[in-house]
Amino acid sequence: MILHMLTKNKKFKSAKSILKGILVLGSIDLPAKLFDAVLYSYRMCDSSSRVFDSLFKTYAHMKKFRNTTDVFCQTKDYGFLPTVEFCNKYISSLLDLNRVDIASGFYKEMRRWYCNKGLLSSTVKLKNLMGKDSLQLNVITFNTLIYGFCKEEKLHEANMMLSEMKSMNVTPNIVSYNTLINGFSQTGNSEMGGRLYEEMVRNGVKADILTYNALILGLCKVGKTKKAAYLVKDLNKGNLVPNASTFSALIIGQCVRKNSENVFQLYKSMIKSGCHPNKHTFQMLISTLCEKENFDGAIQIMQEMLERCMSLDTGILSKLYSGLCRCGKDQLAMKLLNEMEIRCLLPEGFDKARAINLKLWS
Ligand SMILES: *[C@@H]1O[C@H](CO)[C@@H](O)[C@H](O)[C@H]1NC(C)=O
Ligand SMILES: *[C@@H]1O[C@H](CO)[C@@H](O)[C@H](O)[C@H]1NC(C)=O
């Protein structure tokens, strides 16, 4: 009764702390008893469905995720539903904790309900309490799920979500498309990215820089640099400005093609445009330049990393060092190592003495 009164008067914090107290200390079967008690006193107290919201939220805050889903199913059978905002937040916190399994289970429950379009299932006992409570999944629900599946590289499931939202008359927006295109691009599936892009244009959703960056990355990852260059032109036509992510993607493309000339040119235009490469991009540049034995280029990039106090990984440093030694630039190689040591930028695990010894014996 206290819970009903508190939630009816929107004293959610107090309700939550009472619930927490009960649940933390209570016996195992208490949650089920609590649920029944709340349910059967509901009418007498002329309560509102917010009391169940409190129950969900408390379980969710206590990270009792299975219980949250269980309670969701139970209350759903009685025609009570949490708000869609709560569901969205709940799914998103599950995904933050990498619990895509529970998130998709929860979604399935939401969906079953949704598909009944407000009709109660046959087990419903308190039918008269229903009516206004019906759960409308919204675009945020789906975008959250699409994001979660993409993060786990479950692209098939992510794509199913897009179909599903369309079948439920929830219109995909720019976030839905961008997330999905990016997901496919990250795994090198540029065809799907392209198809989604066409669909989005057909549906009148205007591409933004994130769309282009994702598409360009997808193409570059598989070395389709020409197509990527066309997209850069489109981007300019659309009055969008390429940023560091665009350049990094283009650099990836040239690295995949092992074209060290173009890699270097791109790097220069990136700097000229005021964009800053991150460590990953720098390392990719150095690695490609070393493979192509363009050590002057590699050293120039390396110096710029040092100026930014960025270190590089052991593997790449070894590659650069041994490459320099191989073409007789031992002194330069030593100078570089010394400089890194002075700035405390020698990567952990890189043994300078050993590197020099190996060199002496080779
Ligand atoms: C909550 O979860 C625990 C562990 O899975 C289970 O033992 C307990 O019965 C659940 N409570 C409810 C109300 O479902
Ligand atoms: C490029 O722009 C997009 C959109 O504003 C942004 O999300 C992204 O973080 C930017 N990339 C970098 C590296 O700043």
UniProtKB/TrEMBL annotation:
It comes from the Eukaryota. Coiled coil: none annotated. Transmembrane segments: none annotated. Pfam families: PPR, PPR_1, PPR_2. PPR repeats lie at residues 138-172, 173-207, 208-242, 243-277, 278-312, 313-347. Signal peptide: none annotated. Keywords: Repeat. GO terms for molecular function: mRNA binding. The keyword Repeat applies. Gene3D superfamilies: Tetratricopeptide repeat domain (1.25.40.10). PANTHER family: PENTACOTRIPEPTIDE-REPEAT REGION OF PRORP DOMAIN-CONTAINING PROTEIN, PENTATRICOPEPTIDE REPEAT-CONTAINING PROTEIN 1, MITOCHONDRIAL. Belongs to the PPR family. P subfamily. NCBIfam families: PPR (TIGR00756). This is Pentacotripeptide-repeat region of PRORP domain-containing protein. The lineage of its organism: Eukaryota, Viridiplantae, Streptophyta, Embryophyta, Tracheophyta.
